[in-house]
Amino acid sequence: MVKSILSYIDKRLDALSRTKWVIPVLFLLGFVTRFVGAYFGETRGDDDGIYLTMARYFLGGQGFGFVYHNFGFLYSWLPPGMGMLRALFLTLFPANELLALRFFFILLTSSTIVVHFLLAKRLFPPKYALLATLMWILYVPQWFWGSRIDGKNYAENLTVISLYLLFLSWEKRSNWLAFLIGILWTSVTLMRGEFLFVVAVMAVTSILHHGKNFTGFRTASLLLLGCGLAFAPWIIRNYRIHKRFVLISTNFYDACQKAFREGYDFSGDDPSYSPELMARLKAAPGEVERGKVFKEEVIHFIKGHPLGAARVVIGNYLNFWRPWVSLSKASLKEGMVYVVSYVPLFILFVVALFRIPWKNSFWLTIVGIIFYKSFIHVLFYTIVAFRETIMPLVIVVATYPLVRYWETKLK
Fold first, then answer.
1. How many CA atoms lie within 13 A of 269 on its CB side?
2. pLDDT for 163-192, tens place per residue?
3. Of 144, 154, 56, which Cα lies nearest the Cα of 105?
4. Which residue has the higher pLDDT, 265 or 313?
5. Does residue 198 sit in helix, strand or coil?
6. What are the counts of helices (DSSP H) followed by strands (DSSP E) for the chain?
């Protein structure tokens, strides 16, 4: 019975994966599901108000930044990418900026679903690559996450696109593609700073992929060169303002302090600053100095509460992979939908870690990015949305044991 069902599905997948209609069908499925998510879900992202303010200040000629907590004008407190994107859409669509931006993200995600299929074809036969992409399309939480106006959404899509281009550059030994990926990765990092060192994962696996051949070192160098050159204008601008080196933003230790403090409950809700901390922040002459105040708070907590700091690190990692959404962020019904959608994929992902060919540089890159992303968040407060940015990659990995089982049953 099981073999008959799998055989029927296998034939349908094989037929569809080889037809000329597979690309438009995947795009259309992605568009429809994300449109449904857009209709029933939230319009704005988590920091919508701040980024919209940044865009309006910039367009008003007041500089790129925002006023926050009466601390004066903050020039580099947040990564600038989302503010730049909001400014672009406010300029192009002043009367319907939100609607246009929403449509942009739906189109971006729908297009990335096609790229996801092309990426999966580097790892599986076409019919199983199609299976992996259909699993992403039908993963209900992504209907909502994938249609939000959010820098995390942009980073998720560009991660898939950049990985596909990376694998393509390996196959074609293309210098310009490697350089382009470095530039694209700067746009991801300027949206979401925690993605910065993914380019290092790509560089290392590029070297491993080509072995002792100089091509790997050349690819890695071009990746880093493209990233460095694209970062240069933002770094120079920050140095002119702060007279210090600021790579992405000045709020790194603010994000750390939200986790490394007494009373941290892993909910992702922003804490209130104590009167003493607020006084120290107001006394700091600039945002770089305020960052140092947060750094001192984090170090003080770690030294004074080593077990509490260990609890934060371990708890953050476990909560990164948790199967539920905080009830302060979603209803019970939404939480149940999330659990039912996520748990089977997570189980398959864990099984895959013991089965995938680790010597294969394609798999090593994908899993390396997944684990980098999960480990970097032990340093900050954790919310489910941070994991959703790598779910397309998790689903590719989760497909592996399913394919092996599938092939065994059809023999």
1. 12
2. 999 999 999 999 999 999 999 999 999 999
3. 154
4. 313
5. helix
6. 19, 2
Global pTM exceeds 0.85:
yes
Whether the CA torsion 87, 88, 94, 98 is positive or negative: it is negative
Q: Contact at 8 Å (CB) between 147 and 37?
A: yes
**Which tokens in the block code for residue 27?**
């795009």
- The one-letter amino acid code at 200 reads A
- 381 pLDDT tier (thresholds 50, 70, 90): confident
**385 pLDDT above the threshold of 90:** no
Question: What does the DSSP 8-state code read for residue 271?
Answer: P
Q: For residue 235, what pLDDT is reported? A: 94
Interior angle at CA 37, CA 6 and CA 350, nearest 5: 45
Query: 124-150: per-residue pLDDT in tens?
Result: 999 999 999 999 999 998 998 888 888
3-state secondary structure of 60: coil
CB 22 within 8 A of CB 30: no
At 177, the amino acid letter reads L
CA distance 305 to 307: 6
Whole-number pLDDT of residue 133: 96
Helix ranges, 173-213 (H): 175-189, 198-210
Query: Residue 74 pairs with which residues in a beta bridge?
Result: 66
Question: What's the rounded Cα separation, in Å, for the pair 322 and 314?
Answer: 12
In which region does residue 229 sit, left (phi positive, over 0), alpha (psi from -120 to 50) or beta (all else)? alpha
Q: Which two tokens stand for residue 338?
A: 């999330």
C-beta of residue 362 within 8 angstroms of C-beta of residue 123: yes
CA distance 102 to 147: 7
Residues 13-36 have a mean pLDDT of 90
